[in-house]
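Backbone geometry:

***
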Amino acid sequence: MSQTTRNANKNTAASSGDMSWWHLSLVGIGCTVGTGYFLGSSIGIRVTGPSIVFSFILAALGTYIVFSSLAKMTAADPQEGSFCYYADKAFGRWAGFSSGWNYWCSSVLIMGSQLTALAILTQLWFPSIPLWLFSAIYAVLSILIVLLGTKSFDKMEDLFAVIKTAAIIMFIILAIAALAGWIPSKTEEAFQLSLAMSALFPGGFGGFWASFIYAFYAYGGIEVIGLMAMQLKNKEEAPKAGKVMLFSLATVYVLSLTLAVMMVPIHSFTTDESPFVTALADYSLPFFKHAFNGAIIIAGFSTMTAALYGVTALLVIIAKDENAPSVFRRTIQWKDVPLPSLGLGAVGLLASVLTALLLPETIYEYITTAAGILLLYNWLFIIASSSRNLKEEGVLQKTGSISGIVIVLVAVSGTVMEGSIRPGFYISFIFVCVIAVVTLYMNRKWKKEAYSES
């Protein structure tokens, strides 16, 4: 296929969908709120202390800038390929290729992170069963749900979103009641959070810097607004859906984390337990730990399944643009699910199961960090593509784009500051190097093909 024909095919937008903007917001929340928030935030608390709340506020600002860039491009030129298409349009085929495969790899790592977290959480009830076995069980269940088809997936994500939101609200209500003294504490003297700088930033500036990646990771999922915008009845409502989704997430994230760090000393938080369970551990709420743990498992399973669904759909789009082998186009299907594309995603899940078998003690922190970094690399592509495609001339728009790039780069570089999470940076660097090498090879191949056709 010639370059002209390929671009013509890409410029053909998909047919109108039947999804309302509020439904897209709900699906976005369902695809975003997962173990990155429910469990991964405990790593951030351990690294920086109560100042994790400030990390989440700054991450919300950076996320909004990225979302705004994607939403503007979606409203101006709705395309099935979303950020991959916009990167290609802005910088050339190499950008669309690398952006697509970078997102695919980040989603696979997100699945691995969620899968490992689910196993860790399930060990609360079955401590003697190894992580890899639980990981395998959840992986199979996730594949089966995707095989049910798009309509069944949307219905289940709606249900999961309601359960996750209810769990967060339950914690907020109970935490406020506990701080007000309405729920009896098991300890004689309640913990009082000091507002001194040394207490708010026990990890110093380096710890605060390193915590950014976990705050950003909790917001990972805004890409669904772009990928699913084609299903909206009115494509121009994509920005509204994203704003409602992001404002809701930022509000509950900041409020719940503020309450959590006010309730118990920082040294009480561990990566084996949700910070929200830890916060209420000293209160007479025997049901909460198990009920909330179950809700977190549902949240993580939801996000993992959404990631698997996303990479399955994205690989088909990449293949249509001839940036992936043709076998991954919609040739073999089961209930509108492309089986070859799903199969490659399942291989990613299998790799996570094997990794959990080999590195059960440290794998969650490493994979979570690497997944967050790769996700932020793609966000840089979104901001840069927006600046090029929309030709923004205003000072405010340029300042916003530059600020977003700076905040994202600060989050990525912060992972080098903390030794316990630094291996995650190296893992992401390996992925980026592999993608870069393949992109260079493919770019030479495309140039030769274009030269031979001219």
Residues 1-15 have pLDDT under 50 and may be disordered. Residues 3-7+18-453 form a domain with the Amino acid/polyamine transporter I fold (CATH 1.20.1740.10). The chain has one domain: 3-7+18-453.
